[in-house]
Structures are given as structure tokens and as C-alpha cells.
Amino acid sequence: MADEKDLSSRRSDAAPQGAVSPADPVSVSGDGEQAGQPGSGKAGHRLRRILIAAPFAAVLTWAVVSYSTYMLMPTSMSVGERSAEWVRDEVPFGNQVVDEGEHIYYTVNAPKTGGPQLTTLPAVGINTAPASHPAQTSHTKAKAAPYQPPPIKAVFAHPLPGEGAWKPTGPQINGAAPVLVTTYRPETDYPRMIAYVAWFDHTRTELGYYPGRYEPPAAAVRGPAMVPYDQRSRLLATFNGGFTYTDGANGSADNGRTNEPLKDGNATLIGYRNGTIALVKWSGGPDVSPDISWARQSLAPILWDGKLNPQLNDDPNSAQWGYTLGGLTRVWRTAVGIDRHGNLIYVAADDQTVITLAQLLQHAGAVRGMEFDINPEWHTLITYTHGAHGLVPTMIGANPMQSPNRYLLPDDRDFFAVYTPRPGPVTVPFS
Q1: Who is most buried in 42, 71, 84, 384, counting CB within 10 A?
Q2: pLDDT digit string, tens, across residues 105-115
């Protein structure tokens, strides 16, 4: 008779394969799920990976399609500039992302105070016509010479030759050039900093405001996005526009037609049909009145009645004057202003805060002013002479990112053209 030990051994050997005793550990699949449960094994693992990857794949697909479509559109920008614009325009919070990146870059590369003095200033201005003066006789009375602004007072104790002295460019009208340019050093702490200034006589010039390919976004009439061919014989100068519409609801209008709606309170440069120019705080609703030929807004005024706007600040997180670049970091900035005689002043300088920019305008003789485009890609002031082979453009203030032919070819951004005047009400010619 088998003993109890042998009987127990035989029972153990007879147990069916795969049986699990209560004391045995539970078998777990490689995915950490109990064998036999729904979603276990390789199939469940694949399903989870698909569910996780699907949103990322959708975003990636959208980004590739959006970026490719954006980059294949006609453009006057470089690949890098256009890519940055895609991030600004198409990516959620992209504007803040790009501005924050620029903020970091410019903070690291901020200019240092002091350093060696400049010995010369850049040559600006092209005087292609000798000065002419009406002859005086006992039988005729000399015609009064056109108004000319006084030289810009030097900031440094020892001015460089020609510093702040206005130089004529282009042809004379009624005995003097209606477009004058100069350079000067605006800050003693930064002796190598140079400001470029242009002055336009509103009585002897005519301004036109032109949409670019993509700015303003909803132009009533897009036009050629460049200086029209049949207007080039009277072209004197061109310069860049202001902040984009998305950066402050900056409206505009051409020939009585609204592009983007104008916003009350924004600084607005206006060209009236009678030829006068004004800079106002807009309060007329979304559309212009019939007496206005064109209008362009850009943020709030930075200079008013000869005084700086008290709201100007150096807060890097303020979006009011250019998000994160609003004063803490110094970048290329441009501005336009009106002097007490109603003439237009344009300024451009590197390493500016919005406060120093307003001071620059004020020092140049403006009593009202507004900030125009900023950052090194966009500042553009070009004057023109008319040679035997057509227009000869001259860039005032070097910008390696732009060509002197910038506005003679279709451009992405809006801009201003300065013409010799012609009879009749002022309009913006698109052909």
C-alpha cells in the first residue's frame, strides 16, 4: 500500500498542464495587462500608440501643408524672413514666439555704451541740380524762396563735418529741392550710433500710399504692390509703412476706399485731396471721409504737441510698441512726424527704444509723431535721380536685407511713394 507521500506525489504529477494554484503569481502580458483581458498584448499596445500619435501626425501634416503653401506664394522676402512671417501669421501664439526669440537675440547683442568716436558720417543726399535763384531787378520783385528747415542741432560738443546739415536730393522745384536728407549722432552714450533723417516739403511733393502683396491683408484695391511704371518719371523717394494690421488693428485707406477698418485712438497719417498732410489721433470711425486721399494707422502717437507720449515705456512685455521689443532691447526703428509747418519728417536708426525714437523725431523738428515699422528687415528709405537710363535709386541707411530696387518690384509690405506734384486733387495712382 502506497504511503501518503507517494500518493501526494502522484496527484501532483497528474495535475493538468497550465493549471495555476492559488499561491502561484498571476501571469501578466508584456504590456503590463492581465492575460486574456481586453486591449492586452501587441494589438492593444499598437492601438494606444496610434491614439497618442494621431494628434501629432495631424498637427505635423497641417504644418507641412500650411508652410509649403505659404512659402510657394510669390514673395519679396528671403526664406528666413518668410519663415518667420509664417510663424507670426499662421501658428497659434506665433507672433509672441517670434518676438520673444528676437527679444532674446537683441538682448544678447545689445549695443555697448562708449567706444571710439566716429571720424566721418555716411554720405547721404545727391544734389544733381545747381541751386537757382530768381534774378532781381528794379522792375521785378524776387519771389520768396521755399521754406527750408534749420539744420538739426548737433548733440555732441564737436560735430562731424556735415552733421545735421540738410542735403538736397533729386530735382529742384520752384528753386529748391523738396526732399532733404541728413545724418547725425543722437546719443552721446553711443558715439557710433547714426540717425538717418528725411524731410519732405508738403507744398512741393505729393505722397501716395500703396498696399503690398499681403499687407494690408484686405486691401480694397491691391494695385501693383510697387511704384506704377507710368508714375516713375515723377518719383522722388519711397519709404516703408507702419506696423501690420494684426499688430494693433492698424487700418488704412486709399482713394476713399477702406482697406482694413480704422481704429479710433490710433495715430493716423493722412493725405488730403487738397495736398496737405496731417497726423491725427483717429476718431472718425472705421471709414475715411471724402476729403481724404489716403490714410495709414500705426499704434498710438509717440509724440504729440512737441512732447513725448507719457505712456511710452521700456517694459519688455508690453505689446503697445512692439511685443517684447518695446524698449528693453534696442533695434532698428522707424517713425514719421509732422513739423509745425505741416511738412513730413521720416527717421530711421539702429539700436533705438521707442522712447529714444520719439526723442529723435522731436530733436529733428517734429511736433507730432508715430512709430512705423521696426526690426532690421524693414527699414527702407530710398531716394531717386533720373538718369539717361532711367531711375537711379539710392538707399539712405544701409539695409543688407533689402535692395535699392525694393519698391520698383512687387513687395510684400505696404509703402509710401513721394512724387513731384501734378495739377488737380491728390489721388493714389495705381497704373
Answers
A1: 384
A2: 777 777 778 88
